[in-house]
From TrEMBL:
Organism this protein belongs to: Morella rubra (Chinese bayberry)
Enzyme Commission no: 2.7.4.8
Protein name: guanylate kinase
GO CC, alphabetical: cytosol
Keywords in alphabetical order: ATP-binding, Kinase, Nucleotide-binding, Transferase
CDD domains recorded: GMPK
MF terms (GO), sorted A to Z: ATP binding; GMP kinase activity
SMART domains with a match to the protein in the record: GuKc
Residues of the Guanylate kinase-like domain: 43-224
Entry-linked NCBIfam families: guanyl_kin
Family: Belongs to the guanylate kinase family.
Family matches, as InterPro entries: GK/Ca_channel_bsu, Guanylate_kin-like_dom, Guanylate_kinase, Guanylate_kinase_CS, P-loop_NTPase
Length: 237
């Protein structure tokens, strides 16, 4: 391989920057590229899960407010709408018959029967926003996270959200006042069991009372760290 012809390089303290760069390029026989040295990170799928009463909705709502280029996938559910929820924003509220039709048409990435009601993630919504370069946030219960881990493997980031203690988790469930006594007992028993699944996730974030901003910043830091990795996660839906 022949060496490029020797080109005199002007004095560093006299030449302007453009002249110096042109001389360096000529000497090396190479034009310096203005393209990024590493490719821009692609869209990321972030799965946020955790037991009932840990504040998943609050963390995701705030995350959407402070972070750009992020799409929260609205889950379809057959359960009744709570007073403070908005159809199409918090969930797509559908009948059980409508939900089962979606299942038959293979329109859901995953779905599960939770506390007697169906929940599922529409595939098309994920595909559409990933194609537009958005990071995707999926909010699922523990059962849904297990299914998504089987489907997506390590191509998605799995974040486990917890309260600072079991007592605080139960307090939050009681304060919601959306369940009967029997339903509340089931939720508490289930939540206590679900905490044991933390080892199946990539990250754990504590959402302590009065510390919502801290929890959201930690989720943001997780996303930033994932995007800085040399080996990027890449999901295809």
């Amino acid at each position: 391989m022949s060496r490029p012809p020797s080109v005199p390089i002007p004095s560093l303290d006299r030449a302007d920057r453009a002249e110096l760069i042109r001389a360096l390029e000529a000497s090396l026989g190479h034009t310096f590229s203005s393209e990024p040295i590493t490719p821009s990170p692609g869209p990321l799928i972030i799965v946020i899960s955790g037991p009932s009463g840990v504040g998943k909705d609050a963390v995701i709502k705030r995350l959407r407010e402070v972070r750009e280029n992020l799409h929260f996938v609205v889950t379809a559910t057959s359960r009744a709408k709570r007073p403070d929820e908005v159809h199409g924003k918090d969930y797509y509220f559908v009948s059980k018959e409508e939900f089962l039709t979606m299942v038959e048409k293979n329109e859901l990435l995953e779905y599960a029967l939770v506390y007697g009601e169906y929940k599922g993630i529409p595939k098309q919504q994920v595909r559409e926003y990933m194609a537009r370069g958005y990071d995707i946030v999926l909010r699922v219960d523990i059962q849904g996270a297990k299914t998504l881990r089987r489907i997506l493997g390590d191509s998605a980031v799995f974040v486990f959200l917890v309260a600072e203690s079991e007592a605080k988790m139960v307090e939050r469930l009681v304060e919601r006042r959306t369940e009967s006594k029997e339903e509340l007992l089931v939720r508490i028993a289930t939540a206590r069991e679900e905490v044991k699944h933390v080892r199946n996730f990539d990250y754990v974030v504590v959402n302590a009372d009065g510390e919502l901003e801290s929890a959201v910043r930690l989720v943001e830091a997780i996303i930033d760290a994932e995007k800085a990795k040399v080996r990027q996660r890449s999901a295809e839906i």
